[in-house]
Write a structure and sequence with these properties.
Helix content is about 50%, strand content about 15%. The chain is of the alpha/beta class. The strands form 7 sheets. An 8-stranded mixed beta sheet has the order 13-14-12-15-18-11-20-19, sandwiched between helices. Helix 2 crosses helix 3 and helix 3 packs across helix 5.
Length: about 1050
């Protein structure tokens, strides 16, 4: 019976490494099914994870069927392989019926294309949800909302409007939250904090934990927990404060100089300082003192009286103080740190149920579900409904299911699919084919579980798992010999040399080595560790050097630059364009970077704020640029007497008409402005896309221009056009976006990112220890504090999973290259006693030093392997890319010299820019970066000016560690908004600093006195205030 069952059902698992022909294999498996039985075409479901992959697979299958029908010579090998594999798996010879079945299958698919079931997993799940709409009490004809951030923001705003002055439980909690923020000198605007945490409502990690518990959010529960958690913090701090105050009193009475102890202030004094910060730590110097190895230096020992004083102090009370503090730490720090972690988000956490209810109201009002809901809903349906009923309701009588990119499948998606797979395997006698590669799992942050493809589904499939058919695709059809050899050696060495506790790591890299197929082309790999230069970005310079060296050999379109994040991608894009190298990137395709769109947005802003000169001058300047007028900078000032340039061009912006424009619907206003400024005559892809954005906004939300501009400011970093194919330009992608792509030349700059999680990344944890168990689950930010807390196990697990994520990112990046791979990193000093390389630069250096490859260069600064193929790429007809090149960003706030009573002069403009630069400097080493991110002109002037002011700060010791730097913080006082340029805060003092340009004025002192009065009402500290005149460097204290 067992052998019969095995013949009637199949579970096949493909492990498909990068470049191993995964798409070809999937398409061939589909062909085998429809050629064996053409009428089963509508019983096959192929699931992919992106729309692009769906389109590619559909195209590939139709193309193969068409070529097979035409008996094209290109498909001779495919025909032979399909016939042989069908005979091997089912013992049926289809050679005689092959051509007939191909023709029937192609006709059936083309005539019933809607049942050509290749879709994304989201689309498949949505089809099931629509079928169950009535049972789930969901609206018929609902839409799926992709913009979850916008829904969160709307829901948070709606919740905050529920605040009542009669103090219901919710309102009281909200007030306590705000007062707590003010007490800690943080911004009292709670929307951002609440919205950030509210996004977790939609995360799969939270949904899995929350659904496993019957607990619901209850403010009374949180109040009780809050009191107990604050008590834990208070008791721990009080014990440390009492012990430290007592020992400091004794030190003062004895006139003891702590710097005379072993290693000076780095031992006892350092221990006391850390205890006062509630982070006591016995460093190696203190440990030696505790162990009796050292107490003071040899020089101190020569003075017997001093030595005796130090010994007495140490033996009589210092050693007991240190031991007492360390005992407090050992007994209570884990709970203290855990309490601090939970308290950071407890106010927002308690509001999640309120926000959840508002999200539900929003979805009901708008007749939609969120894209993030689909996995949860389908997994619940699958757990509670009979599987045949799911088939019936979704009108999908499936017999075969092919799942692509399985390493990116989430737990909820797996739970949703599992009943279908079991039905196919057990009752339908069909086929389940799973394809994936754990090495390419780079989407864990959005729920992907690489464990599933290794053995995570074994328990769910039980009997079928042990009889599965494992197939490893080990051939690399993508990359040249040297590229494959390098990647084989590099990642095998990573597997052997990097030691992680998590066994998942070794399993992920288990089949990392590939067989070489492309031996006809030479490959080249180069890694460089570049020394940083003070005024230059050597990474960008090297990228340009590499691209220029390939001219005459490679087309621009053969080259891809891959970066870890969008910020570096934007920097590369701008730098290449400055060097006349055409680029296609996420940045270059954004609507907000196009002059025509900037002009349109400025027009909408002016229509709403026509009385404010800033918006008029901004529009004037952009319109001058649009007309390509020479010296467009002259339009950055308000004309004396005459109308603005745009008003001379059209009367639509006259005082008479502007009021009328401000009241029309945003879609009508856009049409009017385009016509008035001549934009409709030069409409391009960007303008058409912008009109589409406006139309969809009006259809979904509102016709208000003000509300649209708010929406635009929130979404503009996402809105772009889709680039046309065939453009001869360098492509720039993040590594995540490059997955599934390949390029002849790959350049990876800034390969020095941290292997650790971001400090603001959040994981959900739970604890059985009171009072934490009252809250069930709560968010914890991945800070160092978590390492010594009740959540240490969760912390270390996340650290290692994040390390694996970064190894996988490198694998994806390195395997995109067909012929040439360039990796650019930063030169760094070796870190002693580092068990694991903590950033990519050190990992590269460490692993490459272990490689046994016949490299051309390997001197610690550069590694080169293979040789550059100098065969010229064939030139094909390709589209020009000039229309895709964006206008570089202009910072209007810095360039527009506006005034209400008098015109700004050049000195005042430079003063404003200097203010902006200084606001970005919290340490002397930040001067260069602050200037680079603020100005492009007169760089030397600002460098000299900023360094002089930094020297004043250093003379005053205002950059010392005791000071917390706060720049341009708003403060509401007596109904007035105050904004000091810089606030310095220590434990017992507050210093207010205000920069002034030009000559002294009485109003300057008056203003500072008001600032002092305002801050004195908040802090019990000593308050000092200084005016710093940036021209003369005179520092005037205001008493």
């Amino acid at each position: 019976m067992q052998s019969i069952m095995k013949d009637l059902s199949d579970l096949i698992l493909y492990k498909a490494s990068a470049g191993s022909g995964k798409t070809y294999t999937l398409a061939k498996e589909y062909l085998k099914l429809v050629i064996l039985n053409p009428y089963d075409y509508n019983k096959i479901l192929a699931v992919t994870f992106t729309k692009k992959a769906t389109a590619e697979m559909k195209t590939r299958i139709i193309e193969y069927l068409s070529l097979l029908e035409q008996k094209d010579k290109k498909t001779t090998a495919l025909r032979k392989s399909v016939i042989e594999e069908i005979k091997e798996s089912s013992n049926i010879d289809v050679s005689e019926d092959f051509d007939k079945n191909v023709r029937i299958a192609l006709q059936l698919i083309l005539h019933d294309y809607s049942n050509f079931n290749i879709s994304t997993i989201d689309s498949f799940f949505q089809s099931i949800i629509r079928s169950f709409a009535k049972e789930l009490d969901l609206p018929i004809g609902m839409e799926v909302e992709l913009d979850t951030d916008m829904v969160i923001q709307q829901s948070v705003q709606s919740m905050l409007k529920e605040y009542k002055t009669d103090k219901d439980a919710f309102s009281k909690w909200l007030e306590e939250y705000i007062f707590d923020l003010i007490e800690e000198d943080k911004s009292w605007k709670v929307e951002k904090n609440i919205a950030k945490l509210s996004k977790q409502l939609l995360s799969e990690d939270y949904q899995l934990l929350a659904t496993a518990s019957s607990q619901r959010f209850d403010i009374e529960t949180y109040k009780n927990a809050l009191v107990e958690l604050k008590q834990i913090v208070f008791q721990y701090r009080k014990k440390l404060d009492d012990a430290t105050k007592a020992v400091e009193k004794k030190i003062k009475e004895d006139g003891l100089n702590l710097s005379l102890f072993f290693q000076g202030n780095k031992s006892v004094q350092s221990f006391i300082n850390n205890a006062k910060k509630y982070e006591p730590e016995a460093n190696s110097y203190v440990q030696k003192m505790l162990g009796g190895e050292a107490l003071y230096s040899k020089a101190t020992a020569k003075d017997e009286a001093v030595a005796m004083q130090l010994e007495n102090a140490w033996n009589n009370y210092l050693v007991y103080y240190i031991q007492e503090v360390l005992q407090i730490k050992e007994q209570q720090q884990q709970q203290y740190n855990a309490a601090e972690i939970v308290l950071k988000n407890i106010y927002s956490l308690a509001l999640l149920e309120f926000i959840n209810s508002k999200i539900k109201e929003y979805k009901s009002d708008k007749n939609l579900i969120l894209i993030s809901d689909t996995n949860q809903i389908v997994s619940l349906i699958a757990q509670h409904e009979e599987v045949p009923f799911i088939f019936e309701k979704s009108a999908s009588f499936l017999k075969y299911i092919l799942i692509d990119e399985f390493q990116d499948t989430s737990s909820l998606q797996w739970k949703g699919m599992l009943p279908l797979l079991l039905e196919i395997l057990q009752n339908v006698n069909g086929l389940v084919l799973i394809v994936g590669d754990p090495k390419q799992s780079i989407y864990r942050w959005r729920g992907g579980k690489m464990e599933l493809i290794i053995d995570g589904i074994a328990a769910d499939l039980t009997y079928h798992w042990k009889d599965r058919k494992d197939i490893s695709l080990k051939e690399n059809y993508r990359s040249a010999k040297e590229i494959v050899e390098f990647n084989n050696a590099f990642f095998s060495t990573v597997k052997n040399e990097i030691q992680l506790q998590n066994s998942l790591f070794k399993n992920v890299l288990a089949d990392v080595e590939q067989n070489i197929i492309k031996t006809d082309k030479t490959g080249f790999v180069q890694c460089k560790w570049l020394e940083k230069k003070e005024d230059e970005d050597v990474q960008l310079e090297e990228v340009v050097t590499i691209i220029q060296s390939l001219q005459g050999i490679k087309k621009y379109s053969d080259i891809a630059v891959l970066t870890r994040n969008n910020i570096h991608g934007a920097a590369v894009a701008n730098y290449l364009q400055e060097h006349q190298i055409p680029v296609v990137s996420a940045e270059s395709l954004l609507l907000q970077n196009q002059l025509s769109i900037k002009l349109l947005i400025a027009s909408l802003e002016y229509a709403l704020h026509s009385e404010e000169d800033f918006y008029a001058v901004k529009l004037n300047y952009l319109f001058a640029q649009f007309l390509q007028l020479e010296k467009s900078e002259q339009y950055l000032t308000k004309p004396k007497g005459d109308a603005f340039l745009f008003q001379q061009h059209t009367d639509k912006f006259s005082k008479k008409n502007i009021q009328q424009l401000s009241s029309v619907a945003v879609n009508e206003l856009v049409f009017t402005v385009m016509n008035a400024l001549g934009l409709d005559e030069k409409a391009d892809t960007y303008l058409l896309r912008f009109q589409d954005v406006v139309y969809k906004y009006v259809q979904s939300y509102s016709t208000s221009t003000l509300e649209f501009l708010e929406y635009w400011n929130e979404q503009k970093h996402k809105l772009s056009i889709i680039p046309p194919e065939g453009i001869n330009a360098v492509k720039i992608y993040t590594i995540h976006k490059s997955k599934g792509l390949q390029f002849p030349v790959v350049i990876i700059p800034y390969a020095n990112w941290s292997m650790k999680p971001k400090s603001d990344s959040t994981i959900w944890v739970k604890s059985d220890v009171p009072p934490f168990n009252q809250l069930n689950v709560f968010p914890a930010e991945m800070t160092k504090k978590m390492e010594n807390s009740l959540f240490a196990e969760d912390y270390h697990k996340e650290i290692e999973l994040n390390y694996i994520d970064n190894i996988n990112l490198l694998y994806v990046a390195f395997t995109r290259a067909e012929e040439q791979l360039y990796v650019l990193s930063s030169a760094e000093k070796e870190s002693k006693n580092e068990l694991l390389p903590q950033n990519v630069s050190r990992l590269l250096s460490y692993i490459i030093s272990k490689l046994a490859l016949n490299s051309v260069v390997n001197d610690g600064h550069e590694f080169a392997f293979g040789a550059i193929n100098t065969v010229v790429t064939n030139e094909e007809d390709e589209m020009a890319v000039t229309f895709l090149r964006p206008v570089l960003f202009q910072n209007f706030k810095l360039k527009i010299p506006l005034a209400t009573k008098k015109e700004y002069n050049e000195a005042q403009i430079k003063g404003n820019i200097l203010h902006d630069i200084l606001s970005k400097i919290n340490h002397p080493k930040q001067v260069q970066k602050a200037i680079a991110t603020t100005v492009t002109d007169d760089v030397e002037f600002y460098k000299i000016a900023a360094n002089k002011i930094v020297a004043v700060f250093m003379q005053q010791k205002w950059f010392d560690k005791e000071w917390t730097q706060i720049n341009e913080r708003n403060l509401y006082y007596k109904g007035e908004l105050l904004r000091a340029d810089r606030i310095l805060l220590s434990d017992d003092e507050c210093i207010i600093i205000d920069y002034k340009t030009g000559s002294k004025e009485a109003d300057h002192v008056k203003q500072l006195k008001k600032y002092k009065e305002a801050y004195a009402s908040i802090f019990a500290h000593k308050i000092s205030a200084f005016l710093l005149y940036t021209d003369t460097l005179e520092l005037q204290e205001v008493n």
